[in-house]
Amino acid sequence: MTGIKPIVVGADGSESSSAAVAWAARAAAALSLPLHIVTVVHMPAFYYSEPYLAESFKTELEDTAKARLGSARLHAKQTVDAPLDITTERHEGKVSQTLIDLSASAHMVVLGSRGHGELTGLLVGSVTSAVAAHAQCPLVVVRGRTLDGLPPTEGPIVVGVDGSEHSEHALEMAFEQSSARSASLIAVNVWSDVSVQPSLGAVPDDPLWSGIQTGEEVVLSERLAGFQERYPDVRVERVVARDRPVRVLSEFAEKAQLIVVGSRGRGGFRGMLLGSTSNALLHTADCPVMIVRPQ
User: Fold this and answer.
1) Would 260 disulfide with which of 108, 139, 159, 256, CB 3.0-4.6 Å?
2) What are the pLDDT digits (tens) for 143-163?
3) Which pLDDT tens digit goes with each residue over 33-88?
4) Side by side, which strands form the sheet with 35-41?
5) pLDDT of 80
6) Which one has a higher pLDDT value, 111 or 243?
């Protein structure tokens, strides 16, 4: 791979990974970045006790991996009209750890929500969950609605903003994606406070409620100011709402082409690797979700 950080996408032959390859190819073309397609094969330890069996199984795995990579490469080329710098690579080992290691030198990692071998009832596979918690670069989980098996390309990009360090990095990636895709950006600051619940008699013009709302509007304006100067081509809509963040962002996901959130918000516990909002969106969003953590 070159000195330019590539977009890394995992391919395992599943429908979910096929959608991820398509999303990654479009992102690579939009950002003029290399696309690195990887597949990981894992040899169970007990196979090594029978050398002949192990060799036969290893050959089968290598043939399968070669076919996966060839199919994914072709799919990527057919997804976009622009020329792509595509490399492919087969790895052997644990899938999640391999992808986490690759994330250290990637611009972003792209995965399907669930791969081959995952239980049908799972909304997010174990590999995707592990990479989401430990990736060293932004992770895009391609999930939700598709058209002919392809993720959406229409609609705005939506970013969650709460003033935390994590959401600052999320804003950076959201503006980058909006500019590259010529998409509008909806910046959403969602707040809630038990002290101003309507059930306790508070109403929208209550001084406490209004004061919090005004403060959150200021937070949003301050966070957006620098990015709007750097990306003057991006049209930004601001939304400040009092509600649960995951509920509001999930509603926007129904028409968005991408949701961008920090891995953990200002209300998350310091020891948590993934916050409740980002984790919930991995299971509920109707469009791809990008999770960004401070580098």
Assistant:
1) 159
2) 999 998 899 999 999 999 887
3) 999 999 998 766 555 556 665 666 677 888 889 999 999 999 999 999 989 999 99
4) 86-92, 35-41, 7-10, 108-112, 139-142, 289-292, 258-262, 157-160, 185-191, 236-242
5) 96
6) 111
pLDDT at 195: 43
Same domain (yes/no): 174, 138: no
* Pair (123, 165) in one structural domain: no
Task: Yes or no: say if 184 and 178 are a contact pair by the CB < 8 Å rule.
Answer: yes
d(CA 140, CA 128): 10
Residue 132 sits in the same domain as residue 161: no
Query: How many folded domains does the chain comprise?
Result: 2
Q: Rounded CA gap, 267 and 284, in Å?
A: 20
Q: What is the largest CA-CA distance in the chain?
A: 77
Residues 8-39 have pLDDT tens digits of 999 999 999 999 999 999 999 999 999 999 99
- Does 1 reside within a domain? no
User: HEC string of the chain?
Assistant: CCCCCCEEEECCCCHHHHHHHHHHHHHHHHHCCCEEEEEEECCCHHHHHCHHHHHHHHHHHHHHHHHHHHHHHHHHHHHCCCCCCEEEEEEECCHHHHHHHHHCCCCEEEEECCCCCCCCCCCCCHHHHHHHHHCCCCEEEECCCCECCECCCCCCEEEECCCCHHHHHHHHHHHHHHHHHCCCEEEEEEECCHHHCHHHCCCCCCHHHHHHHHHHHHHHHHHHHHHHHHCCCCCEEEEEEECCHHHHHHHHHCCCCEEEEECCCCCCCCCCCCCHHHHHHHHHCCCCEEEECCC
Question: What pTM value is reported for the model?
Answer: 0.85
